[in-house]
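The data layer described in this paper is built around a simple, fixed record for each protein. Because each token names a local backbone shape, the row as a whole describes the fold. We quote a single record here, exactly as it is kept in our systems:

***
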Amino acid sequence: MSFEVHAQGAVHVFDCFACAIHRMAPICEHCRCRIIGQGVEVEGHWYCGAHCARAEGRVGIVDRV
């Protein structure tokens, strides 16, 4: 059984959640990993966490545990 994901005006068809995650998850602009779950966005840039954001020179970003 397949399912559709509608995002930003496009329709994507998948047959499993793992494929949907791989295709749809944003990529950290520092370490290039897929961001699954909590990530941070700073001025339109995506990072997997505060550490990677700071490594790219972003300031004021704090992980909350």
Observations:
- Helices lie at 17-24, 50-55.
- The radius of gyration is 14 Å.
- The chain has one domain: 3-56.
